[in-house]
Design brief:
The protein is mainly α. It has 15 helices and six strands.
């Protein structure tokens, strides 16, 4: 139904729906169209930049397609069969990714929770410390941080110089299959700021009366931590665990800029391998198949974590 404003302009700003409400009476419901018209650019962006690439990559995962080809050639499940039966680099990439996720995620959670637990006390200048500890998360895994981290862990870098004071021989941090993954894990744990702030918000919602009652019953600090604090903030712990885990599964910058996936594929995370196959070797079909395997793995692990959370996550109700 067209509407008319004070200046006489008529436009399709609303739709009237008629319905009987009693004998001889008609109730009119008005649905404004203007919000939906304003959302059209967002829907176009969602379709062009989100939905289309997702379904396009799914189709390409069942095809043989290079950037030099005019059209993709459908090959069915061949990419997935080759991936699981005849690709040793894929196996090494999966191992490197899972090791990074299952070691890096607890490292970030432990560091972030410990800092948040300390900053939750009423200390002098605590707001300054909260800001300082958040700075690494602002910097993130950008190029400058990657160069700094590389310089620190090189053979004659700052870390080995500090260890030499205690008589420890220089360690080949970035050239060792054993130490290179832990260098990236330490970089991940260093960027704990956002996780720490979420933990801090959860800790501040714990009622002080619970600690007072526990103290009157003779509970120790560590007992309060494991019997009161952690169970109460367990929903926050679940939220942070999923977020940090997803961030580790999607890690690219650190491995690509610092180690390049080496040495011997020990830091060849899935995203780095996808980049190599898709953009270095121009095998977009196989790269798309790798992407969907990664997505499926993330979905399965997240689902398992969510389903098992009922055994250790405690909600207020």
């Amino acid at each position: 139904m067209a509407t008319e404003n004070k200046k006489g302009f008529r436009g399709p700003t609303a739709i009237a729906v008629g319905s009987r409400n009693g004998p001889g009476r008609k109730k009119r419901l008005r649905f404004p169209l203007a919000p939906f018209v304003l959302l059209i650019p967002w829907f176009i962006g969602l379709a062009v930049f989100r939905a289309y690439p997702i379904f396009r990559s799914l189709y390409l995962s069942f095809s043989n397609f290079s950037l030099l080809d005019a059209y993709p050639r459908f090959i069915g499940w061949d990419n997935y069969v080759r991936m699981f039966t005849n690709d040793r680099i894929f196996n090494a990439s999966v191992i490197a990714t899972l090791r990074y996720v299952f070691l890096g995620t607890p490292a970030v959670l432990v560091v972030a929770f410990f800092i948040a637990y300390v900053l939750n006390f009423k200390l002098k200048g605590v707001n300054l410390f909260r800001t300082v500890y958040y700075i690494p998360s602002i910097l993130g895994g950008n190029v400058a941080v990657a160069i700094l981290w590389t310089q620190m862990f090189r053979t004659n870098g700052l870390v080995n110089a500090a260890l030499s004071i205690f008589g420890i021989e220089p360690i080949l941090w970035l050239r060792s299959e054993t130490f290179a993954p832990f260098v990236l894990i330490m970089l991940s744990a260093w960027q704990f700021g956002s996780t720490m702030l979420i933990f801090l918000a959860g800790l501040q919602n714990v009622s002080p009366s619970l600690y007072e009652a526990a103290a009157m019953d003779g509970a120790k600090k560590h007992q309060m931590l494991f019997r009161i604090t952690i169970p109460i903030i367990s929903p926050v712990l679940l939220f942070n665990t999923i977020n940090v885990m997803l961030r580790h599964f999607q890690e690219f910058n650190a491995a690509f800029l610092i180690t390049g996936g080496g040495p011997f594929n020990s830091t060849l995370f899935m995203n780095v391998y996808i980049y190599q196959r898709s953009f270095a070797e121009l095998d977009f079909g196989y790269g798309s198949a790798l992407t969907w395997v990664l997505l499926s793995g993330i979905g399965v692990i997240t689902l398992v974590l969510w389903l098992t959370s009922k055994f250790w996550v405690h909600y207020s109700d």
